[in-house]
Amino acid sequence: MTKSIVWKAEHTDTFGGQANYSWLRTCEFETAPDASQRAVVTAGKAALGLTGVRCETIDCGAWYQLRPIGGCTVVFLRSC
Hints:
Blueprint: E1 5-15, E2 18-31, H1 37-48, E3 55-59, E4 63-68, E5 73-79
Antiparallel strand pairs: 1-2, 1-5, 3-4, 4-5
């Protein structure tokens, strides 16, 4: 039996480059336990409706930060 990893995605606005949280969209999604960074980011963007949006991806160790290019928003992907 293969277990999956549950991830929590948060998408919010920024102010001065920092997460502002004046609005927040959240969702959860699952990936395989051995999913690559690219697979996690692709699944997270799809869950938030951001497929096709170019992002800078920052690996923060236990979680990922996505910065959509040309936008004033940030996405956090954290495993639960």
